[in-house]
UniProtKB/TrEMBL annotation:
<keyword id="KW-0808">Transferase</keyword>
<comment type="subunit">
    <text>Heterotetramer.</text>
</comment>
<dbReference type="GO" id="GO:0106310">
    <property type="term" value="F:protein serine kinase activity"/>
</dbReference>
<dbReference type="GO" id="GO:0005956">
    <property type="term" value="C:protein kinase CK2 complex"/>
</dbReference>
<dbReference type="GO" id="GO:0051726">
    <property type="term" value="P:regulation of cell cycle"/>
</dbReference>
<dbReference type="InterPro" id="IPR000719">
    <property type="entry name" value="Prot_kinase_dom"/>
</dbReference>
<protein>
    <recommendedName>
        <fullName>Casein kinase II subunit alpha</fullName>
        <ecNumber>2.7.11.1</ecNumber>
    </recommendedName>
</protein>
<dbReference type="GO" id="GO:0004674">
    <property type="term" value="F:protein serine/threonine kinase activity"/>
</dbReference>
<keyword id="KW-0067">ATP-binding</keyword>
<dbReference type="InterPro" id="IPR017441">
    <property type="entry name" value="Protein_kinase_ATP_BS"/>
</dbReference>
<keyword id="KW-0539">Nucleus</keyword>
<dbReference type="InterPro" id="IPR011009">
    <property type="entry name" value="Kinase-like_dom_sf"/>
</dbReference>
<feature type="binding site">
    <location>
        <position position="69"/>
    </location>
    <ligand>
        <name>ATP</name>
    </ligand>
</feature>
<feature type="domain" description="Protein kinase">
    <location>
        <begin position="32"/>
        <end position="317"/>
    </location>
</feature>
<dbReference type="InterPro" id="IPR045216">
    <property type="entry name" value="CK2_alpha"/>
</dbReference>
<keyword id="KW-0723">Serine/threonine-protein kinase</keyword>
<comment type="function">
    <text>Catalytic subunit of a constitutively active serine/threonine-protein kinase complex that phosphorylates a large number of substrates containing acidic residues C-terminal to the phosphorylated serine or threonine.</text>
</comment>
Length: 340
């Protein structure tokens, strides 16, 4: 059972979480035009577009043929989270009868590509963006929702304004204690140990592992902190850092086993100190507080990871916690502190 917010959905009731009963009124797409493709994946194609009624930019997420249940879930979650901090806004839902396509019209957010971002952020910017991501996750976890695919591609970093948006809610799900969920979620480089081991009673803490991976990437200036060729190799990469003893204790605690033909390959790794990853290039971002926060997020045992609220209270964020500027980018200063 999750350490926090375990019974939120039971308290809020079926009107909050029962997306299968959602009746969607689809609008026609006439007021929107597509201008260019900006991405896509297994479940959708994503385009930049215009709202012809006001000439404002929008994002048009054209859904590929998937189960109606999945579409309802994404729309229900986006509507439930409307107006939350750093949550992308759902503006409209449209259906085009000739093509039989369904699309979500989303808030448009300027974005700096992760490949340009991860190795160029100042310490203050790292703190700022991770803090904003944690605010979003704290908000959704308090409301009984797991994102289940937190990764750079699902975060819009507007470096000009300092704003951040958490996007792509297609894999998000309501948390119910004791209810099994598919471990086939997330993206490999950000998959938590429980997902790699096929554990199905996971909770919000799988999102917190992703935050740890992102923070480690930003602090140590590595595009991917754990980069495996497949799920087995991903677990191996984690074990080489966190050690074999911790993995064995985790397996024993939750009665799990490694699903591989060569379990011995995980058998002899000593836990590495986080200071091992400090280099001349990343020393400015690898502070003692940063390493402590990474350590408390990247834990095998999901029950030991910090919650979003606990992470927000970490001393790493002392310089940014009480600052709420209208334009966050204006507060970045060369001194490494928020200026007022």
């Amino acid at each position: 059972m999750a350490r926090v917010h375990a019974n939120v959905n039971a308290l809020l009731g079926p009107d909050w979480y029962d997306y299968e009963k959602l009746k969607i009124e689809w609008n026609v797409p006439d007021r929107y035009e597509i201008t260019r493709r900006i991405g896509g994946g297994r479940y959708s194609e994503v385009f930049e577009g215009n709202d012809l009624s006001n000439e404002e930019a929008v994002v048009i997420k054209v859904l590929k043929p998937v189960a109606k249940k999945k579409i309802k879930r994404e729309i229900k979650i986006l509507r439930n989270l409307s107006g939350g901090p750093n949550i992308v806004g759902l503006l409209d839902v449209v259906h085009d009868p000739p093509s039989r396509s369904h699309s979500l019209i989303m808030e448009y957010v300027e974005n700096t590509d992760w490949k340009e971002l991860y190795n160029s952020l100042s310490e203050l910017e790292v703190k700022h963006y991770v803090f904003q991501l944690l605010r979003a996750l704290d908000f959704i976890h308090e409301r009984g929702i797991m994102h289940r695919d937190v990764k750079p591609g699902n975060i819009m970093f507007n470096r000009e304004s300092g704003n951040l948006r958490l996007i792509d809610w297609g894999l998000a799900e309501f948390y119910h204690p004791g209810v099994e969920c598919s471990p086939r979620v997330g993206t490999r480089y950000y998959k938590s140990p429980e997902l790699l081991l096929g554990y199905t009673l996971y909770d919000y803490s799988l999102d917190m592992w992703c935050v740890g991976c992102l923070l480690a990437s930003m602090v140590f200036r590595k595009e991917y902190f754990f980069r495996g060729r497949d799920n087995d190799d991903q677990l191996l990469k984690i074990t080489k850092v966190l050690g074999t003893n911790g993995l064995e204790q985790y397996l024993q605690t939750y009665e799990l086993y490694i699903r591989t033909e060569a379990p011995d390959r995980y058998a002899s790794f000593v836990r590495q100190p986080w200071t091992r990853f400090i280099t001349a290039e990343n020393r400015s971002t690898a502070s003692v507080d940063a390493l402590d926060l990474i350590d408390k997020l990247l834990r095998y045992d999901h029950q030991e990871r910090l919650t979003a609220a606990e992470a927000l209270a970490h001393t790493y964020f002392n310089a940014v916690r009480l600052q709420t500027p209208s334009n966050p980018a204006e507060c970045f200063s060369d001194s490494g502190f928020y200026s007022t």
